[in-house]
Amino acid sequence: MRIVTIGDVGVLDGMVHIGDEAMFHEATVQLRARGALITGVSSNPAETAERYGVDAVPAIGFHPATTGGRLGQRERRARVLSAIDGGAGHLPQDDPAWQVVEAVREADGVLVAGGGNMASLWPMHVYERNTLGLIARRFDKPLVVSGQTIGPVLEGEDRELVTELLDAAALVGLREGASLELVRTLGVDPATAVGTVDDASFLGFDAAPPAGGAADVAGSAGAPAPYLAVSLSAHVGDADRAAFATAVARLLDRVAGEAGLEVVFLAHWASLDPTEERGDSLLHRAVLDRLTVPARVEPTTDSPAAARFARGAALHLTSRYHPAVFAVAGGVPTVGLAVDDYTTIKLTGALGNFGQTSVVTAAQLLAGEADAVALAAWAGRDTVRTAWAERLDGTRAASAAWWDRVAGALRG
Q1: Peptide bond connecting 152 to the previous residue in cis, omega within 30 degrees of 0
Q2: I want to staple 316 with a disulfide (CB 3.0 to 4.6 A). Which of 189, 211, 264, 327 is the partner?
Q3: What DSSP state is assigned to residue 120?
Q4: Is 55 helix (H, G, I), strand (E, B) or coil?
Q5: Distances from the Cα of 30 to the Cα of 125, 259, 305, 325, 406, angstroms
Q6: DSSP label at 320?
Q7: Mean pLDDT, residues 380-396
Q8: What is the pLDDT of residue 218?
Q9: Are 176 and 199 within 8 A, CB to CB?
C-alpha cells in the first residue's frame, strides 16, 4: 500500500518546526506499522526523504509570494485541476504540481496528516489541501483527513474549500471538540467525522511514570534534577512583546522558586544550529534575560527529542500546542498560555483530552493572575498523575483504533 501524505514539513533555511514535523512523523510510524509505504509532500523533499526514509515530492505550491495572493491561488488551483482533466490551462511540464499528480496517480490513497492550518489565517494551506483532495478524487483514490483543528476563523471561500475537502474524505479526525462542532455546522457527514487526540500524542511514547512527582522532587540517588519546561511561541497575539516577556519571567521566578525547579527552555520553531537564536528562541532569550532563577536552554533537534523533553518535565509552561500535547500525554501538569482564540481552542483541547484545565490568557498573564494557576497545577501534580493513569490505556487504545481505521479507509 502506497500512501501520499501531506504535512507542513520540510526544514528550510535551517529552521525546524517541531510540531508540524511531529504529526507527519507519527503518521509515517503508524502507517508503516500497518504495511504502508509513504510518499511525503514537503517544502523540502530531499530533506524530508532523508529525515524519514520516505519518498517525497514538492508541494503543489500556493505560497502568496509566488502566486500573488488570493486571486493567484484561485487561478493556480483552477489550472492544476484543468491540466488533470486535459482541458485548457495546462501546466508547464516542469511545474512541481505534476510530481504531486503522478504521486497520487500511482498511490493507493491520500492522507492529510494532522495540523491546525485549515483556517482563514493560512489560505495557502487551505488551497494546497483542497487541491490535493480533489486530485485524489479525480483518480478515485481514498482520502483521509486526520488530527485537525478547523478554524476557528473560516470565512467565505475558505469555508467552501474546506467543506469540499472534508466532503471528499472517507474519514475525518478532529482533535478537539470545538473543531468537531464546527465541522458539523459545515454539513459534513457525521458518520465520517470523529473526535480524536492529536496525531502526535504518543510519538515515541514510553508508558513509564512521568517525572516530577513528590518523590522525584525530594530527590533520589542518580535521579535527574526536576525541571520546569518552557516552550514559548514567537507569536504573542496583541500583547506587547517586552511586557509579555517580563510577565513570563516574573511568573517563572515565582513558580520555579517556590517549587524548587530548574527552568529549561526548548524552542519548537528554531534553528537546528544551537549557536543561532531565531524564531521562538528570540522570545526565549528575552525571558531568559529577565529571569533571576537558574535557567538553561535545551537545543532544538527533532520531534522525538522534544517529546521526551516535555514528558520528562516536572511542570510545563507553554504557549505552543505540541509541547502541551507531549506533556499531558505523559502525565505532566501543564499550564497553557493562550494568546488568541486559535491558541485558546488548541490548548484547551490538548489539556482537556487528559483532564487538565490550566489555560490562562495573555491578559491574565500580564495582570499577574497566571501565578495562582501555575502554582495550583504544581500543587495538584499527584491528582494530575492519577487522572492521567486512569485515562492512559483507554486513550492509547482509542488512538491505535483510529490509526487502524485510517489504514482501513486508505485501502479502500
Answers
A1: yes
A2: 327
A3: T
A4: strand
A5: 24, 38, 18, 18, 10
A6: S
A7: 96
A8: 36
A9: no
pTM for this entry? 0.95
**Mean pLDDT to the nearest integer, 402-406:** 98
Helix, strand, or coil (residue 135): helix
154 CB-near residues (< 8 Å, 6+ apart): 118, 119, 120, 162, 182
Q: Cell 504531486 identifies what position? A: 100
Mean of the per-residue pLDDT values for the chain? 94
Q: Spell out the domains of the chain, with CATH numbers in brackets.
A: 2-200 (3.40.50.11930), 214-391 (3.40.50.2000)
C-alpha cell at 24: 507527519
- Tell which residue, 204, 202, 182, 180, has the closest CA to residue 193: 180
Burial class (CB in 10 A: 0-12, 13-18, 19+), 23: buried
User: Binning pLDDT at 50, 70 and 90, where does residue 100 land?
Assistant: very high
Give CA–CA dist 180/212, Å, rounded: 33
Q: Please return the burial class of 382, using the count of CB atoms within 10 Å of its CB with bins 0-12, 13-18 and 19+.
A: exposed
In angstroms, the first-to-last Cα distance of the chain is 11
- Give per-residue pLDDT as tens, 323-376: 999 999 999 999 999 999 999 999 999 999 999 999 999 999 999 999 999 999
Residue 333: CB atoms within 10 Å: 28
For residue 157, how many other CB atoms are within 10 A of its CB?
15
Cell numbers standing for residue 212: 516530577
Q: Where do the DSSP E strands lie in 43-197? A: 55-58, 109-112, 115-118, 143-150, 171-174, 193-195
Q: Which residues lie closer than 8 Å to 337 by C-beta, 6 or more apart?
A: 232, 248, 317, 318, 319, 343, 347, 359, 360, 361, 362, 365, 370
Element (H, E) at 170: none
Please report the beta strands in 65-132, taking only residues with DSSP state E, as ranges in sequence order: 109-112, 115-118
